[in-house]
Amino acid sequence: VQLQASGGGLAQVGGSLRLSCKAIGLNFSINTIAWYRQAPGTQRELVASISSGGNTNYADSVKGRFTISRDNSRRMVYLQMNSLKPEDTAVYYCKASSAWGRGTLVTVSS
Predict the structure, then answer these.
(1) Distance from C-alpha of 73 to C-alpha of 84, rounded to nearest angstrom
(2) Are 3 and 76 a contacting pair, CB within 8 Å?
(3) 3-29: per-residue pLDDT in tens?
(4) What is the DSSP string of 31-69?
(5) What integer pLDDT is reported at residue 15 of this predicted model?
(6) Is 9 left (phi over 0), alpha (psi -120 to 50) or beta?
(7) Are the C-beta atoms of residues 21 and 101 closer than 8 Å to each other?
(8) How far apart are CA 70 and CA 20, in angstroms?
(9) What DSSP element (H or E) covers 93?
(10) In whole angstroms, what separates CA 108 from the centre of its chain?
(11) CA–CA gap between residue 71 and residue 22 (Å, rounded)
(12) How much of the chain, in percent, has pLDDT values that exceed 90?
């Protein structure tokens, strides 16, 4: 299983970024896909997840600002991040089943 995350970069406070994750080598449509993040010196935390049926779950810290979605035909999961805050700065990882992507860095500058 390979998970290829992309879309990270530098954003200003209040700005937006969209992360993408492409899954290769798993039965994508039946898996729950999740985004996690890890800031320096902290533990990795769940940001959002989306089930095979499209049910979503968000960390309280991102509710109302981030949106997770999936396109099963393209084997892609997206994380739309709006109203970014400095505390959103972290390496973001996508996860499916027991597999982790390599991570993409998001830096929010004030």
Answers:
(1) 29
(2) no
(3) 999 999 999 999 999 999 999 888 888
(4) S-EEEEEE-TTS--EEEEEE-TT--EEE-TTTTTTEEEE
(5) 98
(6) left
(7) yes
(8) 9
(9) strand 90-96
(10) 15
(11) 10
(12) 87
Beta-carbon count within 10 A of 79 CB: 27
- 37, 90 in Cβ contact below 8 A? yes
Q: What pLDDT shows up at residue 109? A: 95
| CA gap 71, 77 in Å, rounded | 6
Beta-sheet strand order (sheet of 17-24): 2-6, 17-24, 76-81, 66-71
Q: What residues contact residue 54 under an 8 Å CB cut-off, 6+ apart?
A: 70
Q: What is the pLDDT of residue 69?
A: 97
pLDDT at 103 over 90: yes
**What letter does residue 106 receive in the DSSP assignment?**
E
Joined tokens for residue 31: 């898996």
Measure Cα distances from 55 to 51, 72, 88 in Å. 5, 14, 23
Residues 35-54 have a mean pLDDT of 96
Mean pLDDT, residues 65-79 taken together = 96
